[in-house]
């Protein structure tokens, strides 16, 4: 028996590049913050918890004190993650190289399964170009700017969607998670979403006055010059999550805005990126929740995604905590086959 829906993780990052679809509600170029931002947090998993044995709170405090003493770093506990990892705050921001060195030192300590920097990831975008008229042309006024929907013979670019739309324009039973900056109210997305969540824990990054909550609304991710650490220019808000959600599932052939790849799919907005980007720890929790897996302190997702889209990236190869999350998501889906 074949599974009705195709499940996948669409992750555009320097660690894994499977596939990415860009376009959205406006034809725009998204410029990510320069790579190499300071590291302010670490992710640690204790060996005891790799087998599902929870460490008691009092014992956890003692473990962190031991780890702090062993590494000469005053580590402060932030929160538990999904997948039984933990987020620890550094006393001062470190460079990527310094954080990697600290992670290596921490990983060598007794009882540590792995330790890694909690890197900030940024949204990824690209610039539009124009191609020939499609086979099936929706009447959305900005469709002509969605260059990536078409295919030019001899080119490796383009999705050839007009030909695909001649076969099907998609199914309303498909839920696509957009793990990104959140979402704005927009006519092209009205009635196209299911209840999402805001996973940004740091109030500065969240930029909405609080930490995690049930509203995935995007308050903007604008930054001032050098606000994220290091040297970088000021940037206006990207509204990247809305842009991506529109690419995936905007109401189409309705004479408004753009066309979506799937004219009928439901969008599950999962907010993990804000000012300066988003912590790996928040992104991983958002990934797991999107797939219907439990996350400490967060209600269970009532609408698990068939597809998870992550148009984001950062330095380095896939980390242990990211790979653990992907393995858990795939394993959970296999149980439904």
Summarize the structure.
This protein is of the alpha/beta class. The chain has helices at 57-71, 96-107, 161-165, 203-206, 240-249, 280-290, 320-334; strands spanning 8-12, 39-46, 76-80, 86-94, 112-117, 120-123, 175-180, 197-198, 266-271, 278-279, 307-313.
Structural description of this entry:
Strands 1, 6, 7, 8, 9, 10 and 11 form a seven-stranded mixed sheet that branches. The chain folds into two domains: 1-37 and 122-337, Peptidase S8/S53 domain (Rossmann fold), CATH 3.40.50; 39-118, 2-Layer Sandwich (Alpha-Beta Plaits), CATH 3.30.70. α6 (280-290) packs parallel to α7 (320-334). It has helices at 57-71, 96-107, 161-165, 203-206, 240-249, 280-290, 320-334, and strands at residues 8-12, 39-46, 76-80, 86-94, 112-117, 120-123, 175-180, 197-198, 266-271, 278-279, 307-313. The radius of gyration is 21 Å and the shape is globular. With 337 residues, it is an alpha/beta fold. It has seven helices and eleven strands.
């Amino acid at each position: 028996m074949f599974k009705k829906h195709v499940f996948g993780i669409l992750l555009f990052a320097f660690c894994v590049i499977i596939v990415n679809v860009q376009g959205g509600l406006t034809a725009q170029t998204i410029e990510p913050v320069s790579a190499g931002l300071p590291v302010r947090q670490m992710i640690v998993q204790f060996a005891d918890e790799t087998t599902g044995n929870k460490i008691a709170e009092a014992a956890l405090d003692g473990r962190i004190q031991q780890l702090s003493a062993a590494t000469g770093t005053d580590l402060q506990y932030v929160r538990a993650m999904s997948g039984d990892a933990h987020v620890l705050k550094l006393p001062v921001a470190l460079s990527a190289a310094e954080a990697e060195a600290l992670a290596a030192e921490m990983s060598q300590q007794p009882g540590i399964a792995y330790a890694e920097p909690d890197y900030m990831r940024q949204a990824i975008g690209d610039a539009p170009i124009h191609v020939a008229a499609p086979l099936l042309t929706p009447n959305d006024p900005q469709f002509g700017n969605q260059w990536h929907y078409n295919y030019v013979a001899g080119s490796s670019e383009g999705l050839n969607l007009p030909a695909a739309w001649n076969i099907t324009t998609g199914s309303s039973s498909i839920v696509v998670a957009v793990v990104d900056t959140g979402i704005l109210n927009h006519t092209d997305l009205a009635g196209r979403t299911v209840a999402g969540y805001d996973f940004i824990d740091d109030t500065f990054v969240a930029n909405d006055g609080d930490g995690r909550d049930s509203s995935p609304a995007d308050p903007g991710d604008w930054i001032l010059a050098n606000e994220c650490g290091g040297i970088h220019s000021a940037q206006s808000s990207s509204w990247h999550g809305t842009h991506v959600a529109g690419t995936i599932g905007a109401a189409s052939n309705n004479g408004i805005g753009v066309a979506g790849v799937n004219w009928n799919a439901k969008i599950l907005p999962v907010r993990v990126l804000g000012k300066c980007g988003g912590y790996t720890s928040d992104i991983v929790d958002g990934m797991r929740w999107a797939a219907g897996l439990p996350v400490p302190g967060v209600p269970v997702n009532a609408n698990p995604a068939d597809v998870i889209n992550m148009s984001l990236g950062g330095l380095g190869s896939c980390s242990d905590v990211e790979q653990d999350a992907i393995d858990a998501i795939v394993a959970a889906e296999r149980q439904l086959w």
